Amino acid sequence: MPDDQVLEKSALHQRAAAGMLKNTWIVGSSGYPLTDWVLVPYTHQNLTWTQHAFNEKIGEVQRIAREAFARLKGRWTCLQKRTEVKLQDLPVVIGACCVLHNICELRKEEMEPDLRYELVDDEMVPDNSIRSVTASQARENIAHNLLHHGLAGTAFF
């Protein structure tokens, strides 16, 4: 199932639809649509300098997230394959893995090199990649501020 369809079926999407993510941006890849709460890179050809700089910053945030998920999946091999857990129990199992993983990260516990996990991204750009004119303008403003006001770096996001 494409990323945008998975998102639309998620609890996160339900929270956003209920207005619980106001004034919040979640960075997504180009496999997700631009919405009032999902900020994605520009995907069209011939980007301006501003758009290119924005995509560079989005890429930095995505790299950090990918590395975190790779460590999570490397540490908890049950997340690397199809699970035997009942579907209704899956959020609890994933949540437990995330909590334990965060404890390991906070304690700066090293991972064995042989536990490294390589994530594979098979993203597909959705047919309707811009679902909000407001979000499109907000992205333009963010991109402009990143380039022209020296607001570079992941701390901005």
From TrEMBL:
InterPro entries: HARBI1-like, HARBI1_dom. It comes from the Eukaryota. Its cofactor is a divalent metal cation. It is found in: Nucleus. The keyword Membrane does not apply. Belongs to the HARBI1 family. This is DDE Tnp4 domain-containing protein. It comes from Zingiber officinale.
